[in-house]
Amino acid sequence: SSPLPARSRVVVIGAGQAGLSAAWFLRRAGLAPGEGYVVLDHNDAPGGAWQHRWPSLTLSTVNRVHDLPGMALADAVDDTGGRVRAADAVPRYFAAYESRFDLPVHRPVGVRLVRYADGRGGPPDFVVETDAGEVRAHGIINATGTWERPFRPYYPGRDDFSGEQLHTADYRTPEAFAGRHVVVVGGGISAVQLLVEIAAVTTTTWVTRREPVWTEEEFTPERGRAAVALVEERVRQGLPPGSVVSVTGLPLTEPMRQARRAGILHRRPMFERIVPDGVQWSDGTLQRAEVILWCTGFRTALDHLAPLRLRGPGGGIVLDGAIPTRVAGHRRLHLLGYGPSASTIGANRGGRVAVRELLATLGIH
Ligand code: FAD
Fold it and tell me: Model-level pTM?
């Protein structure tokens, strides 16, 4: 891509759903590409984290990828039949989107850290240090997602396991596990989807910390709003946002019903330790296993913001604003994809609000 400008009024970090939504609203507000705003992204190609999703995840098995503002996914991808891989479709859509709106996305550009410049009166600029040079900015919209921060909890014996351990982010196809016993850890949607796939080719054990809560209720907009409101409240208080499933429960779809009848979704409590040839519970019961698949989620990729010291005593970051995206005490910094904006629809809405509030703070509108 073209060389990075030395300064840009607003720097957007990340070109996934959240970063592109923000870019679209910045463009609509009349900011010039380059000196007005730029988007920096770590990946080699468009698509955000979607380009790394496992091959069996299709547009019909994802929850739903909402259209970005101004252009529908269906304009870029024909998915009659619903069999198109999400890892192909969404990158194609984002590529078409970036080019339709001429968005100034620079890639691959990894942001190493963001700090404040030495201020001489007035609010200090941000300095965005990247592996392609520095950019100074008046405002930052951070939209770096979670994919690059897979989370794996610690259990004793972890390093002694003689089999293979991997995370959701490493998963490709179930065939890789044929002939090996797989322990799937985790109570979220990814865990149950991968468990059902893997159980078709080999034996499995499912373990979760809490008893999974299945829900027959359809996922209505009202339930979605109620779930988001809970996460929003946590973020306004500076608590870690928490997972969506902890609020909504697991949807009992037809494939899940079948899997339950087949005994695949028989859940066991968390094991106590990992031993070289399997996992062991506190009563001494052992399950031999050759693979442990950690479907234990992701954390937000915010390490590059460490110099700004955003985390408060609650363990999270206090956000405010109409949809909380603005960092309390750092009015020119917004986080998208954190808490209530951590969904494709939330990213769209968060992008609109973040741009409106940031430009007002910068006195641009
Ligand atoms: P991403 O798509 O992760 O984009 C972040 C971008 O930032 C990446 O391109 C990355 O390279 C870049 N980046 C990261 N760090 C840096 C750095 N330091 N410097 C430069 N660039 C950086 N949500 C839904 O609404 N519907 C679904 O169906 C759905 N399915 C999902 C399925 C899976 C398996 C997972 C894991 C999540 C799913 N989600 C879904 C949640 C979904 O991922 C998000 O809502 C949304 O896609 C995230 O977009 P984003 O822009 O925040 O992040």
Answer: 0.95
